[in-house]
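Title: Prediction job returns without error message
Component: structure pipeline
Severity: low
Priority: P3
Assignee: unassigned

Description:
Job completed but the reporter wants confirmation the result is attached to the right record. Sequence as submitted:
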Amino acid sequence: MTAEQTHAAGPLSGLLVADFSRVLAGPYATMLLADLGADVVKVEGPHGDDTRSWTPPVRDAVSTYYLGINRGKRSLALDLRDETDAALARELARRAHVLIENFKPGGLTKYGLDYDAVSLRNPALVYASISGFGTGPGRDVPGYDLMVQAVSGLMSLTGDPDGPPYRAGISVFDVMAGNHAVIGILAALRHRDATGRGQLVEVNLLSSALSGLVNHSSAYVAGGVVPVRMGNAHPSVFPYEPLPTADDDLIVAAANDGQYRRLCEVLGVPRLADDPRFARNADRTARREELRPLLVEQLARRGAAEWFDLLVQAGVPSGPINTIKGGFAMAERFGLEPVVEVGAGERAVPTTRNPLRFSETPPVYRLPPPELDEHGAELRAWLAAPAGDIDV
């Protein structure tokens, strides 16, 4: 085991999280909480989380999708349609400090697991609910990331100007909503520490998406401009895109005047930094079609890897366009140790390291992604035993 795996406690040690979520946004959020020391009980239906069957690829016949977002948890399989199991679920909610769910809005009410019912028994509970489109008129619209990429406008920004819209390569808004859920949970826990009262935290994918579109959202809301697809170009900065070299394309992101000047010096054309046509970012952006071929002409003298080293040494943001394998190799090169092994022996699973670093309470990697109902017997026995009021 690593030092992180044997570390006494993470910053959320002692926090019990009842995880009634499935697929990506919720499980990603609860994995982050588990990494920070929380005790996460993953409540699954009799057939398990959907992502258990999302294959290929697999590792030892287990979906790598599932493995990637479920470390650090204990699994309890419950059929909420069975009253005995539903009672155990309600008892778990009564004892928990945090409950997170992403059922269709109102879907847990018939089991007595909605916020109003649960908070009566556990008023200090922080109850996080993730939906696709909120609990108002959009409550009945299924919430899948691809749908949200479409309706939010992201796909209208992705792809070549004259080509079709494209989805992002990952479920970007599920991940974003999961992060927003964690932020909301931590803020609500801070409030609970101060007042003793829990609360309902609501996150929806569409709102996360509109927030995450940042400058594009602001262009519309504050400027009345509807952004359009520009391929790999940036609407407000140039150069800030892939440019061809002697072999491969290289990302060049000279986002201010100082970086642009250093870029010109490294490329051997300092005169372009003093050229009044390109003096300011606004000038370079307006005249990008004039400036691009002048930069490309110089970049053609070397390959992408050599330019990367020279530009980074000069303080000019740049980078090769890697595969995922290359991305992990780059992280290894920079000493970021991007892979951590969770579990031991046959259960050991390599997973992607939590991105947070703490000087006193580092993330912990205690449990590999659980098999379905792996901890069912011990959890049922614990929930069936008498217990006093939870420690708030």
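Comment from assignee: result matches the submitted record. The CA atoms of residues 15 and 38 lie 5 Å apart.
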